[in-house]
Specification:
heterodimer; A: 442 residues; alpha/beta; 7-stranded mixed β-sheet; globular; disordered N terminus; B: 465 residues; 3-stranded antiparallel β-sheet; 12 strands
Chain lengths: 442, 465
């Protein structure tokens, strides 16, 4: 399965500005080559949405796909499970889990959330939980997870409490204080809080949650692996989920769902029930009918890739973080705006305030701006509309309230030029007196 | 049928004779021809055998691949189209997500809608596979129990030969939720559709005992192991007569294998894989849901942004993943239409060839087919010589592995427990498939492997566990 990289050694005859001291680590031209399938001229500063996958991992994936197509029966009987086991082991080590049984591979965090929430729904339906027992979630929880809570918890008779976190966030203390308020509410009238869904940023050691009477904690860390250090024992959550195709260079798509071994976790099932039903979630998830499992099988190839970088995945994480902070500050300074959260609370992404003169006053305005940037400036970056809460002191720039934020990402393929392109595009729009309402979309 | 066998043999020898004397202008081998041609030969109306060979040249050549039924197949022109789509996503995923993905999924759904004679594209959802479809339909049944619309003990009916994964899904979603499950026993070998109809009627009677309502009937269109074609149209009619709430036809082997006409069959839910007999890459299936109030309550279990907007829309976005297998349906249609008669022509020729091959094998081995030819699709159950001593499910797996490793033959084996009093019973049946890439030699290889085993007095007991 090893992809013989024909590019080893070729980099010596590419012109480079700095003399190479050692060819031990991947070089800039090699990185460009690995991501040469990315559309050129697009400032792709949105790694956070759909991730990225280097050419050498894609090649490894094609080898797996071809192996299946050549002789699928032999692949099914002799190869598939071994390949998935190798991936389990790598992830288990990466996240400091105790046992491969605790690691299930699924398509994405959306699927992982459905698995956990379906079990909550069943517990309500089977009378294990009382009607109106609570599930706690953050207000800013990903919309797909919100819908999943609706589909499995609300529908089954559970009640849901939303924790409103302030934005921009200034400190961990603010988060903890809001959480405590919601926990009180969730326990009112003799109810039990059956599950709290939090993200990695707000996750404190789960022992804190249990001390407050929360039965189970699910950490939705969609962005975490490859972006921040993940130590599931330190976090102590019952369930921890993260996508591997966002920041860990896997092809679309694959995620892991970590389940701490407890009585409750053995009750989880993959919703697509197949032959392995009842043999444990990680075994069930390893066969959910005929499909292409290749993105789950390339984890070893990904590990090889990240270890070509100085410091491996830790080095990548640190450099991404430092760069995105640097770029965020550069943009905020150029536009006269702010950063959406303190640098220490960001990983490879950063929220940067947009000039108020753009008059971004609705979600539709945000979509218009994003499309305009894509179509007319070749900049790909998600834009968010930030509603001002009543009584909340908004953040201002010299012309008004800042209501729009861009979420910039930095991954190994990004260059300074990407952010300069974005900087200049926004400055151009402001200079031309354009507001979101009048933007032209191709 | 004999003529199709001869045609096939003839075509076979033509293939080997084709080097350097191509009838197709697009065949690169024409460049090797010694005589200069004054005019380019006319483009053949239909795909040529050497084109077919090329399209499946990625299949392992040393294996007699007579098991299309398990994992299907995909021609290289469709795989190339798929790679193009995968690349487009990787190049600029946001652009693809906002501007391409949904349009292309809708295009695939519309093609499927036309092929299966559905009324409206809303009725056609695309999912990964029939296993997923089963989970979708059965989850709705579970909600019926949980929300009190069904009474504990209300029944679901399924065939004894229902696919193992579907049986587990029924356990997970129906039994667990308080439903009562009835299995319809089916004879095997089977001699006529009447035997099946009779058993089904009796099972429904049992289902309705004690004031139970039968909430769902799960009926295979083509059973997996052992494989026979079930008279679904008639069974659906009986379900309506007997007041069964809803009928779900599991046609994992559906489109490209049997006639798939939603209005003719009349089921509430119908699912078929597209990667088994419809040349799509792994994996993709459709789930048809006849429009009604109940069908609006079906949900994909992986809940995402589109929750509540209808199953078809929900299924078109279940989080970031590779949707490319769902997007190549137009390219597959192009491929299929290169064959005479399109998918119907392929179906007919596959059926005739597999029956030919089955009859050739049973004659060589002195055994029998598992059902009459009219109850086969592109697959047929072929009795294996009793002296092989197949006496358990484990034996079938061991023998299958042995055939793969020692003889280069890939074929699934089914164990049929002997009935009391049977003398020298046939207890093992091979499920042979026939698809456009198969050749007579594949089946000769299998024939000869078994003959050799019999000659060597081989028994399954001699195989290590």
């Amino acid at each position: 399965m090893e992809h013989e990289d024909p590019r080893n050694g070729e980099s010596t005859h590419r012109s480079s500005k700095k003399p190479k001291i050692s060819s031990k680590f991947i070089s800039e031209p090699e990185i460009r080559d690995e991501f040469s399938h990315h559309q050129p001229h697009v400032a792709r500063i949105n790694n956070g949405s759909f991730g990225s996958c280097p050419g050498s991992v894609l090649a490894a994936q094609r080898q797996w796909q071809l192996q299946f197509l050549r002789q699928p029966d032999a692949f099914y009987f002799n190869t598939l499970r071994k390949g998935i086991t190798a991936s389990w082991k790598i992830i288990m080590d990466l996240i400091n889990a105790d046992h491969v049984d605790e690691v299930s591979l699924v398509d994405n965090v959306t699927t992982a959330a459905a698995i956990v929430l379906q079990q909550i729904g069943r517990s309500f339906a089977e009378g294990k939980f009382q009607k109106n027992d609570t599930v706690l979630m953050l207000h800013c929880v990903f919309q797909a997870v919100k819908k999943s809570i609706q589909a499995y918890v609300t529908r089954a008779g559970g009640s849901v409490i939303e924790v409103r976190l302030p934005f921009p966030v200034n400190s961990e203390e603010e988060i903890i204080s809001e959480l405590k308020k919601s926990i009180e509410k969730g326990k009112s009238n003799g109810r039990k809080i059956r599950l709290a869904i939090i993200d990695h940023i707000t996750s404190m050691p789960s022992v804190v949650f249990r001390a407050e009477g929360i039965e189970q904690v699910l950490v939705d860390a969609a962005h975490s692996i490859g972006s921040v250090k993940v130590d599931v024992k330190e976090v102590g959550a019952d369930f921890y989920v993260s996508n591997l195709h966002k920041w860990f260079f896997c092809p679309p798509s694959v995620a892991f769902l970590y389940c701490k071994k407890t009585n409750l976790s053995s009750a989880l099932h993959h919703p697509v029930v197949s032959h392995e039903y009842g043999n444990g979630l990680h075994i069930e998830s390893a066969w959910i009918g005929t499909r292409d499992y290749s993105s789950q099988l390339v984890v070893p190839a990904v590990l090889e890739f990240v270890n070509r970088f100085e410091g491996g995945i830790d080095g990548i994480m640190k450099r991404n973080h430092d760069e995105v902070v640097k770029m965020g500050k550069m943009l905020a300074e150029s536009w006269g705006t702010n950063l959406g959260s303190p640098p220490k609370m960001c990983a490879g992404m950063m929220m940067v305030g947009l000039p108020s003169r753009l008059c971004l006053n609705s979600d539709e305005d945000a979509v218009r701006l994003r499309s305009h940037l894509r179509d007319c400036y070749e900049v790909e970056v998600p834009i968010f509309y930030q509603v001002l809460k009543d009584g909340e002191e908004g953040v201002r720039d010299k012309d008004g309230f800042i209501t729009g934020y861009a979420r910039i990402s930095h991954q190994v393929y990004n260059t300074m030029e990407d952010y300069e392109k974005f900087r200049d595009a926004i400055n151009q729009l402001v200079e031309d007196g354009k507001t979101c309402k009048i933007l032209w979309i191709e | 049928m004999a003529s199709s066998l001869r045609t096939h043999t003839q075509t076979n020898s033509n293939t080997s004779a084709m080097n350097g004397t191509s009838a197709s202008a697009s065949d690169p081998k024409s460049q090797l021809s010694k005589k200069p041609r004054l005019h380019a030969p006319p483009q053949p109306l239909f795909i040529t055998p050497s084109d077919v060979l090329f399209e499946f040249s990625h299949h392992l050549p040393s294996i007699a691949r007579i098991n299309n039924g398990s994992f299907g197949c995909c021609p290289s022109s469709v795989l190339s189209a798929q790679q193009q789509l995968q690349l487009q996503w990787l190049q600029q995923p946001d652009h693809f997500y906002f501007n391409q993905l949904q349009t292309r999924i809708l295009q695939s759904r519309n093609i499927i809608k036309d092929m299966i004679n559905a009324d409206h594209v809303d009725e056609v959802s695309i999912v990964d596979n029939a296993t997923t479809s089963a989970a979708i339909v059965l989850q709705q049944i579970a909600w019926g129990f949980a929300e009190g619309r069904f009474r504990p003990g209300d029944a679901a009916v399924m065939l004894h030969y229902a696919y193992g994964a579907v049986k587990k899904s029924v356990e997970a979603y129906v039994t667990r939720a308080g439903g009562y499950v009835i299995e319809v026993p089916l004879p095997f070998p089977v001699n006529s559709v009447d035997e099946i109809v009779q058993e089904f009627r009796e099972a429904l009677e049992r289902g309705k005992q004690n004031g139970r309502r039968v909430r769902l009937a799960v009926i295979d269109h083509v059973t997996s192991m052992p494989s026979v074609v079930i008279p679904v149209k008639e069974l659906v009619r009986i379900c309506r007569e007997e007041g069964v709430d809803r009928v779900f036809v599991d046609a994992a082997h559906g489109i490209g294998c049997v006639d798939v006409d939603m209005k003719q069959i009349g089921a509430d839910f119908y699912t078929s894989n597209l990667h088994k007999w419809f040349f799509c890459p792994p994996s993709v299936a459709f789930l048809y849901c006849r429009r009604s109030t109940e069908s609006s309550d079906l949900h994909h279990p992986v809940v995402s942004h589109e929750y509540g907007n209808g199953l078809a829309i929900e299924s078109a976005w279940i989080g970031t993943r590779d949707y490319s297998a769902q997007l190549v349906v137009p390219k597959v249609l192009e491929f299929i239409n290169r064959f005479e008669g399109g998918i119907d022509g392929i179906k007919k020729r596959n059926h005739e060839a597999v029956v030919d091959m089955g009859e050739m094998l049973v004659k060589a081995w002195g055994t029998h087919l598992g059902c009459p030819p009219e109850m086969c699709s592109s697959m047929v159950m072929v009795g294996l010589p009793a002296c092989l001593g197949i006496s358990s499910d484990q034996d079938t797996l061991k023998l299958r592995t042995y055939l793969r490793d020692k003889f280069g033959v890939e074929v699934p084996i089914y164990y049929r427990a002997p009935k009391d009093g049977e003398v020298g019973p046939v207890t093992g049946y091979a499920r042979i498939s026939y698809q456009v890439y198969n050749k007579v030699d594949d089946y000769y290889k299998f024939r000869d492997a078994i003959i050799q085993l019999v000659h060597n007095a081989f028994t399954c007991a001699s195989l290590p566990t």
